[in-house]
Design a protein that fits this description.
The complex is a heterodimer. Chain A has helices at 31-34, 47-61, 96-106, 118-124, 126-135, 180-187, 200-212, 257-264, 283-296, 303-312; strands spanning 68-72, 87-90, 111-117, 139-145, 148-149, 155-156, 191-196, 216-222, 273-277. Chain A is of the alpha/beta class. In chain A, helix 5 (126-135) crosses helix 6 (180-187). Chain B has a seven-stranded mixed sheet, sandwiched between helices. Chain B has a six-stranded mixed sheet with strand order 3-4-2-5-6-7, sandwiched between helices. In chain B, strands 18-20-19-22-23 form a five-stranded mixed sheet, with helices on both faces. The N and C termini of chain B lie far apart (64 Å). The chains are: A alpha/beta, B alpha/beta. The interface between A and B is large, with 65 and 74 residues. Strand 2 (87-90) of chain A pairs parallel with strand 17 of chain B, so a sheet runs across the interface.
């Protein structure tokens, strides 16, 4: 991976634009170092466990602290960046993915993590999900899906099941919900997985695989809203009498999208784990190749001279 | 290369200026030959302003290209033309009235009938199509008749034939060999065509003695200005008349190690650009009016989160889809006030094609200095018209792109109340806590804050940085009389026509001056000093005079200064101002006393 985003071409004394400053000793990335504000989520919210799992993964991966950036849109789960002592940006509703795309494409040296909910990801930001997936932007996106709008206090979400009673569907939701796995498969995402906020080990393992995937990786994480949709995921929570069924990858080929579609069609609560995982060149890599190929032909001409020549052509 | 000689003619008249209108269909390549003539003007130390209309259809439709060539300063594309070239009956019928008394009309005698012998107009019928087919032969049909006309005009105006064929060779030389050969055949045929016993013309020697003159359109030079300003990243969505900027950035930026992304929509485009800006780069997005509306929520965020950003709006006729290929200046209010909340941002407008380069440079500097969005209001006329001007001196203006990832100390605050925000991009090592960038109201560290006093203070912080900019901006100079009857104030592409109007009004004995605003938000402080010594003030702008009789800039100025002598000269016909429209407007205001 290139560490300079601009060409350091024929400037007299080329200064690499991204130079890690010399530090006496590299700090160890611990949960303590990663912890920021105390979460503002309601007691009992599933999102606490997602945050804890994310700390664990980062402790394991030990990326340089300053190279981690957390991005979010709007929603309860989108408060995530405030609770991480890393570079963080809290953006507007539905547009976290294009914002993260801008970071990812212009800064190959940083690790981009996006957090958000089902409304942010599948409703107001639905179009962006499709395009970031097909372009295979290098980033990891965790969708904390609670099947309800929580921040605005119980309206129907795009993943609310039919019959769900909310303030906007007093007689029960009448619209067919989105199937996140099928939508992501159709859009061309190269890593698609599903996990559950009550299954910490599964979350940690799934996040780790997603983060290590070179491409657009999405994890849907069922995360209960204790205030407005209590019990929503009991059917996949063994402690509450449900069944947490993990995909058996000796039986399921994660490179087979048809098999993944079939898995995605299982009735609620369905299965958990990696549905799909394929290698396809990222937009990041393809764009960088264009840049490298273009610059190779310029024989070290300085950027200023390039523009001078361009202006001279208009004489 | 060319062996033909110009037809012998009885006499030749020396000109300072000429306005030539080419009227045909958009697929006939009249823009192409207009562009060649404009480029020639730049190469012969002459001045030029062009103007074109393009149908907003997918392919074809009536179109014109008008050139105003001159040996001295040329400030506008011309009210009436001296020469009309009519390719079709509809071209003749629609444009003969725009030909001045005693002007010359060349028309395709195979197409145009029913000549109007009026106002002393000289009609010269030439079978453009047939003569071109005869010259090129084969199955060329009518392709190349534009080049035939170029040859014809070259002979009539005694233009530098060698330079014209040089430009042709460069333009067509890259294609198949036969393309250039056919072009030169068509050119020679036009150049040598016996036009009969009419006067030919030659231009006085050009007054621009600087060697490095370039000719180009506003969108092109603004794009190069962005690159010179250090822009390497951004994202946009295609829309007329903005698209050519994003196309050029897309193909040029890899040469400079950068990258331009075509986004899935306008919202994604501005968001990706904010992402690149947050990542520490100088980044640009752009659009036309409808797209700017779609970007408004994110632009409010960029004001709140204090993200430096350049946003270009190439204005076109509105509202809604409006007139996509016509000019209007009706997005001023949108640019300044279009977002929700109190979200101060900078709005600039280039005054002519050359200024498109310098405004891009300034936008880059201001965005970084004040850490906020900077909107550049260009327009359809500037985007496509060609002017000749001195090549920018890159040794003086080049800005090396930077990415500041220097370590930040324990006292770093992303939103200091006693200073301007300069973010620490991802990748920056922090001795203290890592910063959060946010659209929620926040304290100095970027923590969300609903504290009433904090909101008041942060609102003031975001406003006051631009108030301080306003105090640093110099008052625009007044052209013409420094005191007297009336001061004209304009912004954007109306600069040339306003200046020319001042020349005419002063020649008529009026005491008139003009000031042009490049900084529209904030405006330079104490603008009232400009008009203190004038009886009247007229704001000239291409937008509607609205419910209360004042255009958009006039409304803002009247609100800011409570000055009743400020009045409006507005129009919304989708065309640039003619000199006589401004002169008439001024005379009307002055006659009210």
């Amino acid at each position: 991976m290139s560490t300079t985003t601009f060409d350091s071409s024929a400037v007299a004394a080329p200064t690499p634009l991204i130079t890690p400053p010399p530090m006496a000793a590299e700090e160890k990335l611990t949960k303590k170092a990663l912890t920021a504000d105390h979460p503002t989520w309601c007691p009992g919210c599933g999102d606490f466990a997602v945050l804890a799992a994310f700390y664990k993964v980062l402790e394991k991966l030990q990326y340089p602290h300053e190279k981690i950036v957390c991005v979010a849109g709007i929603g309860c789960s989108s408060r995530f960046p405030y609770f991480m002592n890393t570079h963080g940006i809290h953006f507007i509703h539905g547009r976290a993915i294009p914002l993260a795309t801008g970071i990812s494409l212009s800064r190959p040296d940083v690790h981009v993590f996006v957090f958000g909910g089902d409304g942010d990801g599948f409703s107001i930001g639905g179009n962006h999900l499709n395009h970031a997936a097909r372009k295979n932007i290098k980033l990891t996106y965790v969708i904390m899906d609670n099947f309800v709008y929580g921040l605005t206090k119980k309206q129907t979400s795009p993943t609310s099941p039919q019959g769900f009673k909310s303030k906007t569907d007093p007689i029960g939701s009448i619209d067919r919900p989105i199937n996140p796995m099928k939508q992501l498969l159709a859009s061309g995402a190269t890593f698609i997985a599903r996990t559950h906020a009550a299954q910490v080990k599964h979350m940690v393992d799934t996040f780790e695989r997603a983060i290590k995937h070179d491409g657009f990786s999405v994890v849907e994480c069922l995360s209960e809203c204790i205030m407005f949709y209590e019990g929503s995921f009991d059917d996949s929570w063994p402690k509450k009498g449900g069944a947490f069924e993990i995909i058996d990858e000796t039986q399921h080929d994660v490179k087979d999208d048809v098999a993944a579609f079939k898995l995605a069609d299982l009735p609620s609560p369905g299965k958990f784990g990696v549905f799909y995982d394929v290698d396809r060149p990222t937009k990041n890599a393809l764009e960088q190749k264009w840049i490298d190929d273009t610059q190779a032909k310029l024989a070290g001409t300085s950027q200023k001279d390039l523009l001078k020549k361009r202006l001279e052509m208009m004489r | 290369m060319s062996t033909a000689t110009a037809p012998s003619t009885s006499s030749s008249t020396t000109l300072r200026n000429a306005v030539i209108r080419l009227a045909g269909n958009s697929q006939d390549g009249i823009q192409s030959i207009g562009g060649i003539l404009a480029r020639l003007a730049g190469r012969t130390q002459q001045d030029v302003v062009t103007y074109m209309t393009i149908p907003s259809t997918i392919s074809g439709g009536p179109s014109i290209f008008q050139l105003h060539l001159g040996s001295g300063e040329v400030l506008h594309a011309g009210d009436d033309s001296d020469v009309l070239v009519a390719f079709y009956q509809h071209s003749y019928d629609s444009h003969i009235s725009a030909l001045r008394e005693g002007g010359i009309c060349f028309y395709d005698s195979g197409e145009v009938t029913g000549l109007k012998n009026e106002r002393g107009i000289h009609h010269i019928g030439i079978p453009f199509t047939a003569a071109t087919v005869e010259a090129i032969g084969g199955s060329a049909r009518d392709r190349g008749k534009n080049i035939f006309v170029l040859g014809l005009l070259c002979a009539v105006f005694q233009l530098d034939k060698e330079k014209v064929t040089g430009i042709l060779s460069r333009q067509f030389g890259k294609k198949d060999e036969s393309v250039l050969r056919n072009a030169l055949l068509a050119f020679d045929a036009g150049f040598a065509y016996p036009i009969g016993d009419i006067t030919t013309f030659n231009f006085e020697e050009g007054e621009h003695k600087d060697a490095n003159r370039i000719s180009t359109d506003g969108n092109t030079i603004m794009t190069l200005g962005l690159i010179a300003a250090g822009v390497r990243y951004g994202s946009a969505y295609p829309i007329t008349p903005w698209s050519s900027i994003m196309e050029t950035l897309r193909s040029e930026l890899p040469r400079y190690g950068g990258l331009y992304v075509q986004a899935e929509d306008e919202l994604a485009a501005v968001s990706m650009t904010i992402g690149a800006a947050y990542a520490g780069h100088l980044a640009v997005t752009g659009s036309a009016g409808p797209g700017l509306s779609l970007k408004m929520e994110a632009l409010s965020y960029a004001s709140m989160a204090e993200i430096p950003l350049i946003v270009i709006n190439v204005q076109r006729g509105g509202p809604s889809t409006g007139l996509p290929t016509s000019v209007e200046q009706s997005d001023l209010m949108q640019a300044i006030y279009g977002s929700h909340g109190d979200c101060p941002r900078i709005v600039l407008a280039p005054k002519d094609v050359e200024d498109c380069f310098y405004i891009a440079l300034e936008a880059g500097k201001l965005a970084r200095q004040y850490s906020c969005p900077v909107i550049i209001l260009s327009d359809q006329a500037l985007s496509s018209r060609i002017e000749a001007f001195t090549e920018p001196d890159l040794d003086k203006h080049w800005v090396e792109p930077t990415l500041d990832l220097s370590d930040r100390g324990a006292d770093f605050k992303p939103y200091p109340l006693d200073g301007v925000t300069h973010h620490a991009p991802p990748g920056t090592k922090m001795a203290g806590k890592y910063p959060h960038v946010t659209g929620l109201e926040h304290d100095e560290w970027g923590h969300p804050s609903g504290n009433p006093k904090m909101h008041q203070k942060m609102t003031e912080k975001r406003r006051n940085k631009l108030v301080s900019l306003s105090q640093k901006l110099p008052l625009p100079e007044i052209y013409g009389d420094q005191e007297g009857d009336l001061l004209l104030i304009g912004w954007g592409s109306t600069f040339g026509p306003i200046k020319e109007s001042v020349n005419r009004l002063r020649a008529e004995g009026h005491k008139v001056g003009a000031a042009h605003l490049r900084h529209l938000h904030p405006m330079p402080a104490h603008l009232d000093r400009l008009w203190a010594k004038f009886k009247d003030v007229a704001i000239v702008e291409l937008n509607d005079s609205g419910m209360y009789g004042y255009g958009q800039l006039a409304t803002i100025l009247r609100g800011a200064y409570a000055e009743p002598k400020i009045q409006s000269i507005c129009k919304t016909d989708g065309l640039t101002f003619r000199i006589r429209e401004i002169v008439t407007g001024v005379e009307k205001i002055m006659s009210n006393h």
